[in-house]
Automatic annotation (TrEMBL):
Keywords: Acyltransferase, Transferase
GO molecular function annotation: acyltransferase activity, transferring groups other than amino-acyl groups
Pfam families, sorted: Acetyltransf_1
Matching InterPro entries: Acyl_CoA_acyltransferase, Bact_Acetyltransf, GNAT_dom
Protein name from the UniProt record: Acetyltransferase (GNAT) family protein
Domain N-acetyltransferase: 4-182
Taxonomic lineage: Bacteria, Bacillati, Actinomycetota, Actinomycetes, Micromonosporales
Amino acid sequence: MSLGYVRPARPEDAGEVARVQLATWRVAYRRLLPKHVLDRLDEAWLTRQWRAAIEAPPSERHRVLVAVEQADQSYLVGFAASGPVDEQALAPEEPAEALGPGAVAVTDLLVEPRWGRRGHGSRLLSASVDLWREDGFATAVAWAYEGDEATRKFLTSTGWEPDGAARALDVDDMLVPQLRLHVSLAE
């Protein structure tokens, strides 16, 4: 376990969040997503998207948190983004009300691989759960790539379970299967 902490993201973190996202996707998803798709991801565009999410979230219950490693200097090493469920949280042809108003969706939970296994993911998830409970959410959902064993193993080790929903993302004419996990936020 390393020395580290979690805090709300600041606008000036957007570039590092984008860098962590790209580095993580290019390592963790290199066997799941086409190489040319990963190679074409634009860090400047991602930075603008993350800056917008941090500066002007759709609601007060949309959050971006960052994990910071403390050593001789501090490094932003991971992040979590979440918000009330929307159509992106639903399975194909699932009705809009299926997950209910008391559900929150994790849109991203990433720790840069070189900083993995140091407790940053657990700190991000724990801080997120505290905020979700504070916001009155009753359940949380997250989509994971079927081939992403590390994410599935991490979430199931903390009590998350598949809820039976599945979908496949069309990534440049390649279908990439995902499954949805959920957890109760009751204490």
